[in-house]
Design brief:
By secondary structure, this protein is mainly β. Helix content is 10%, strand content 46%. It has a 16-stranded antiparallel sheet that branches. A 9-stranded mixed sheet has the order 12-13-14-15-16-18-17-20-19. A 6-stranded mixed sheet has the order 11-10-9-21-22-23.
Length: 971
């Protein structure tokens, strides 16, 4: 039994100052508490104030947060303190106040501590460094801010001595959204800080630095959730964004910030986040922020401004996590971008924490990482001083690249100043100054960052656009270039997409075109498919007009095609063309659902259990969407699984046991998820409105069987279980909220998309896969209780409680492996005679069939002919072979119509899954005058016929990466 005066969490230190300090701790008991404090031998006493902490499953009545604000302290002085509850000494520690005017400020920065596997190594570094305070850049929780135990287990119990002696400033991360971060950190620290209207962002003036820490979740989490979900952001978060950004700009333009030697801005979301880039970067650069710190990526990234007028005057540093040791850094070189869509990124790698040393003259930011043996390694540095960049350019050479005004500038550049400098080349074109800051070949160019004294050879491309003579001056070099009339049109922003439904055999190409001439043009623009002109479009453009053009081109065969417009680089598009057996796992629930076995999984019998082995990326189970799988109030997902291994470093994590939605994270993009983190920790969740509601708890049993359950109800909340035991719980959500259904998406076991939804492709860039074995899958249209879940776990072969809401119960002992497809009755040409006597009868000469047919599978075709689509005049049976087959049909009588019935058979077993695949049929027909060919080779062709049994279309692009797009996630 716990003592009444037991401290659950703390003591920990908040809002440090030269003359004040907040001491906080959490207890279950409502008691009289005090803090005694003072220098050695002289102690004072202060009474604690207390407030309720929200209830959680472990503490259904809620706990109490006790705080004491110590004031009128001496600067730079060591104080002893002790926490007393009901007169009993509970905990004692010490701290040092800050200096009034420190000559040097020594800080540590951390982010994304989450599971905090490196807590011991970090504690040792804190003891050695003795920072004035620590900046935590967000994501203490590995699950969500609605889980009290996340803060107890992953923070307070990890570094209790550090927290009792070293103060920390906290800012919210996306995983911290919830009441416990607010009550334990945001609210108590805000009482003694200059804050934004919502009290979640604040600024501090200390020594020579003005420090601003901004809660970026209104845009980095909620606005992102809304856009990824295709809905509008709610009014409350729109207001929060406006109020926070207005406050930030007012703060940075206030007297305290403007008179500070240094301005540092901290947000959880990084520079590379599209929403942070949209909202924070313009304010930071406009207000002269010197250093912007971020986290979230679990990686180290350094960037400079894309604006040459700002350059390295504002530097962006994103730091890694404290879960996994990492100490590496790659620096960008000319012509090699580290991130495809970010030429301004100049370094990337892995690190675990940072150290900031700030004096009146300089900021030294040093990024460190831990090695496997626990030692630390310097990863990268940023040294900022006051002063303007000074660059020296030499050995300048100008060279014409073409007649359209492209000019290459080659030179050596050296930083001859005392400050960090971005290479910016000043070029004068006919008296007008141009600033070039991207070097290297087009599409691979990037920024170059130079330390004082550093020298590099660089090249840049300048485009003189106006026809006529151009005098180009760079340094002492001066040359004249003649620019001819430009080509009529130039093109950009090519986007290729494939149609849907009856347009699934069509490629659509969108391109932006601009008329470069000062007069009207009428021209022809080509669409290329596999390097051949497939179609042209005539277009009229007014002088200097810019507009978007769309091409639509129908293809007769399925497969991968290289598509481009005009002079653009080609992109790949895939047309669905084949049909095959997709083995169907039958459903024991009585609701008539089924699951598709994708890939080539093995199905084995072991210890009286039927197992599906998902060994490869393409092996997974897919339960197609259905109207009666909607779960407006709640759900339960169950999977009996043996996870064979965790994700490798070169694979995505968040490996899905069960998932429905567009992505397993990074937005309100799923209805439910049960995923395995690369550490083996289990993450669960749902989404409602524009809110992602994830939680964490439990550890997967690698190499052993486990029963994994996630149950959620809007009123009672989410509960997750392993082998019948509760491992995580979160409270309910507002009654008026709506669970995101993603009703058009399948339920996946073993597969999911992962990352931000990219609008151009309407899906994330990446996918993730679970390597393991599946023995049973269930899905309920309500939340099961703990007792009901345990009953099912103990009797897995019985329907058990909740069966009226049991929507899916997969039966791996009954897998359908056969099916058939019947084409429509097809006439070789348009049949529109004026009189019946004018009908022409066709002789069918040859069938060409293209297949992929393992020896364990079978394909049989029956070619039937008819004059009225009712009475079968004759038929021919064929056993198809692997590859391309040619079959003589000349023995069939002349007829009006033909159709083909194809019987498929597959094999599923211990050796794997072997399925027949039919790519195309082509029938040659002729009459006394003409000949023609009938083709079935695309999805619309097959869908004009009828399917039965386990026949369907193989999925397209589920295992495809999209290198064109950048999505920086930690996976």
């Amino acid at each position: 039994m716990k003592r009444r005066n037991h401290l659950l969490n703390g003591p920990y230190l908040l809002s440090p100052g030269a003359h004040g300090m907040t001491i906080a701790w959490e207890m279950e008991a409502d008691a009289a508490a005090t803090v005694s404090y003072g220098e050695a031998g002289s102690m004072l006493e202060a009474a604690a104030k207390k407030q309720r902490v929200p209830a959680c499953r472990a503490y259904p009545e809620g706990c109490w947060l006790y705080t004491v604000r110590l004031s009128h302290l001496k600067e730079d002085t060591q104080y002893q303190y002790a926490v007393h509850v009901d007169g009993v000494l509970c905990r004692s520690a010490s701290f040092r106040t800050l200096c009034d005017s420190p000559a040097r400020l020594h800080l540590m920065t951390i982010s994304d501590t989450q599971l905090f596997s490196l807590s011991d190594a970090f504690s040792a570094v804190v003891r050695e460094e003795k920072p004035s305070f620590i900046l935590h850049i967000g994501d203490i929780s590995f699950g969500t801010g609605y889980q009290h135990e996340q803060y107890t287990n992953n923070w307070f119990q990890r570094i209790p001595k550090v927290l009792g002696e070293t103060p920390v400033f906290y800012i919210t991360g996306n995983h911290d959204d919830g009441p416990f971060f607010t009550k334990l950190f945001a609210e108590p620290q805000a009482r003694h800080l200059e804050t934004a209207p919502d009290c979640r962002s604040f600024s501090v003036d200390y020594g020579t630095v003005h420090l601003v820490m901004v809660d970026s979740t209104p845009w980095g989490l909620f606005e992102m959730n809304a856009e990824n979900s295709g809905v509008s952001l709610d009014a409350a978060n729109q207001r929060r964004i406006k109020e926070t950004l207005d406050w930030l700009e007012a703060d940075l333009t206030g007297m305290a910030a403007k008179t500070a030697q240094w301005r540092i801005l901290v947000t959880h979301h990084p520079y590379t986040d599209v929403f942070n880039n949209r909202h924070i970067v313009p304010i930071a650069e406009k207000c002269g922020v010197h250093l912007v710190l971020g986290g979230h990526l679990h990686s180290y990234v350094k960037a400079v401004s894309v604006n040459p007028a700002v350059g390295a005057r504002t530097v962006y540093v994103m730091q890694g996590n404290l879960q996994e040791a990492g100490a590496s850094c790659a620096h960008g070189t000319m012509g090699r971008r580290l991130l495809e869509e970010f030429p301004e990124v100049v370094a990337m790698g892995k690190n675990n924490y940072g150290i900031l040393d700030i004096t009146e003259d300089a900021i030294d930011c040093r990024m460190y990482g831990f090695l496997p043996d626990g030692s630390r390694k310097l990863v990268d540095t940023v040294h900022l001083e006051h002063g303007e960049p000074a660059l020296s350019w030499s050995d300048i050479r100008l060279r014409r690249l073409d007649n359209d005004g492209h000019i290459e500038v080659e030179a050596d550049v050296q930083n001859v100043g005392t400050v960090l400098a971005e290479a910016v080349l000043r070029l004068v074109d006919n008296g007008e100054a141009k600033m070039l800051n991207r070097f290297g070949e087009r599409r691979h160019d990037g920024m170059i960052l130079l330390k004082p004294g550093e020298k590099q050879s660089v090249s840049a491309i300048y485009h003189a656009r106006t026809p006529g003579m151009h005098t180009i001056e760079v340094g002492d070099e001066k040359e004249e270039f003649s620019v001819f009339e430009p080509q009529e049109l130039s093109f950009s922003h090519l986007h290729i997409r494939v149609g849907e439904g009856d347009k699934a055999n069509c490629i659509f190409a969108d391109i932006e075109a601009v008329n470069n001439l000062d007069h009207e043009v009428f021209t022809t623009i080509p669409l290329y498919v596999d390097q051949r002109v497939a179609e042209t479009q005539s277009a009229f453009f007014r002088a200097r007009e810019r507009r978007r053009l769309t091409f639509a081109y129908a293809l007769s065969h399925g497969g991968a095609y290289s598509v481009s417009v005009a002079d653009q680089l080609p992109e790949e598009a895939r047309i669905e063309g084949s049909i095959r057996v997709i083995p169907r796992v039958l459903d024991r629930s009585g609701c008539g659902h089924y699951a598709l076995l994708q890939g080539a999984p093995k199905v084995v019998e072991r210890a009286g259990r039927r197992e599906v082995i998902l060994a490869h990326d393409g092996d997974y189970i897919e339960i197609p969407p259905a109207a009666d799988l909607s779960v407006p109030q709640g759900f339960t997902g169950m999977v009996w699984a043996q996870v064979d291994r965790l994700a490798r470093p070169d694979e995505m994590g968040h490996n899905p046991l069960m998932m429905r939605g567009k992505s397993v994270g990074w937005g309100a993009a799923y209805c439910l998820r049960m995923v395995v983190d690369r550490t083996g920790s289990l993450k669960w969740g749902t989404c409602y409105d524009v809110t992602e509601y994830p939680w964490q708890g439990g550890q997967v049993k690698v190499g052993a069987w486990g029963h994994y359950t996630s149950a959620f109800d809007k009123k009672s909340g989410g509960s997750s279980y392993i082998d019948g035991n509760l491992v995580a719980h979160v409270p309910g959500v507002p009654a008026r909220s709506e669970i995101c259904q993603w009703a058009d998406m399948p339920l996946f076991i073993g597969y999911s998309y992962i990352g931000h939804v990219i609008p151009a492709i309407n899906r994330p860039k990446y996918y993730t896969h679970l390597a393991g074995r599946i023995a049973q899958v269930r899905f309920y249209r309500r939340s099961l209780t703990e007792e009901e879940n345990r009953t099912v776990y103990e009797s897995p072969e019985e329907a058990g409680p909740g069966q009226r809401k049991l929507a899916v119960w997969l039966d791996f002992r009954h897998i359908l492996t056969v099916g058939a497809h019947t084409t429509e009755w097809r006439h070789p040409a348009v049949l529109d005679p004026a009189f019946k006597t004018e009908r022409r009868y066709w002789r069918f000469c040859q069938l060409r069939a293209k297949t992929r047919l393992p020896i364990q599978a079978g394909l049989k075709a029956t070619v039937e002919v008819s004059d009225d689509k009712t009475f079968i005049k004759a038929s021919k049976k064929i056993v198809l072979k692997d590859g391309t087959s040619y079959v003589d049909l000349s023995e069939l009588p002349a007829s009006q119509y033909l159709r083909i019935v194809t019987d498929f058979s597959a094999q599923v077993g211990a050796s794997g899954t072997f399925v027949p695949e039919l790519f195309e049929y082509e029938v040659t027909a002729k009459n006394e005058l003409d000949f023609t060919e009938m083709l079935w080779a695309t999805r619309p062709d097959w869908e004009r016929g009828q399917f039965s049994g386990a026949i369907g279309f193989p999925p397209v692009d589920r295992l495809r990466d999209y290198p064109k797009y950048t999505d920086v996630i930690h996976g």
